[in-house]
Amino acid sequence: MVNIVNYITRQSHKPLILIPIILMILSLLYLGVFGLNEGIDLKGGTLVTVELKQPMTETEITNTVQNGLGVTDVETSLSDNTAIITISGDVDQVNFEELFSTQFNILSFRSVGALLSNAAMTQIIYALLFAFIFMAGTVFYVFRDLVPSVAIILSAVCNLSVAVGSMSLFGIPLSIASVGALLMLIGYGVDTDILLTTRLLKRREGSLEDRAEDALKTGVTLTFAALAAMIVLFVVVKLFIPTAQVLEDISAVLIMGLISDLLSTWFMNLGILKWHMERGGHN
Asked: Topology of domain 45-112, per CATH?
């Protein structure tokens, strides 16, 4: 561990800058080729929570609903005797009850139309856009230096790109919940970047490498603590409350984003700042 810290903070930083950039490019390429699944909040559809009248597996429930309704896009999440069924498209509740009255008791039934889903997507775009605008303005106002400000924004873009690319890779849908996780990730990533930038640019005690090492130890400790909490949440939800899909999606997105934040902050951002200061920047 000591050798890794010394290499990151005291050795050549230029090769390390490329690692997060390459990951970001690969994530964007994968996203461009395979796209991103949309949750029911965005693409519209029907979400039904049912109580099983007889023991059934997730596959049996999915096949039963597909055959009964004549649709193909059906997903099922099962926990004990309760199942959450997601169906693409509008489904009539009365018809659903009549078709599956012998298999299910309906606990809740919710339909999301195309109009609502389009409005949700618009709100997501505005939320992410304003998050970046206010973040960029705040960072530039605090440091009054273009290079550190651009480095922080680039790091946030890298975090977001890798997280969204990972969502595409692992089949996590874009939903209101996952967007909330992405916004939290932007905020957390900027926190660690500002920690690093403040230690390097504002403080004068010790050498540049000493300040970088001090910032790294603090920032990595914070990130590992957050990672541990999200991993525990993901495992608990996966094993004990699999119907809590929202918590599973949020924890999965944050786990991938926090790992990306470690690379973008301590490889790329630190490398850019060291290069900037070695060239006489922010004197």
From this structure: Alpha-Beta Plaits (3.30.70)
8 Å CB contact between 234 and 255:
yes
Q: Which residues contact 245 (CB under 8 A, 6 or more apart)?
A: 77, 84
**Is the CB of residue 132 less than 8 Å from the CB of residue 156?**
yes
For the beta sheet containing 74-79, the strands, ordered from the edge strand earlier in sequence to the opposite edge, are 74-79, 82-87, 45-52, 104-112
Mean pLDDT for each consecutive 10-residue tract of the chain (283 residues)?
Answer: 61 79 94 86 81 88 89 82 84 87 88 64 79 78 82 88 92 84 87 87 79 88 94 90 82 93 90 82 57
CATH T-level assignment (fold) for domain 2-39+116-278: Multidrug efflux transporter AcrB transmembrane fold (1.20.1640)
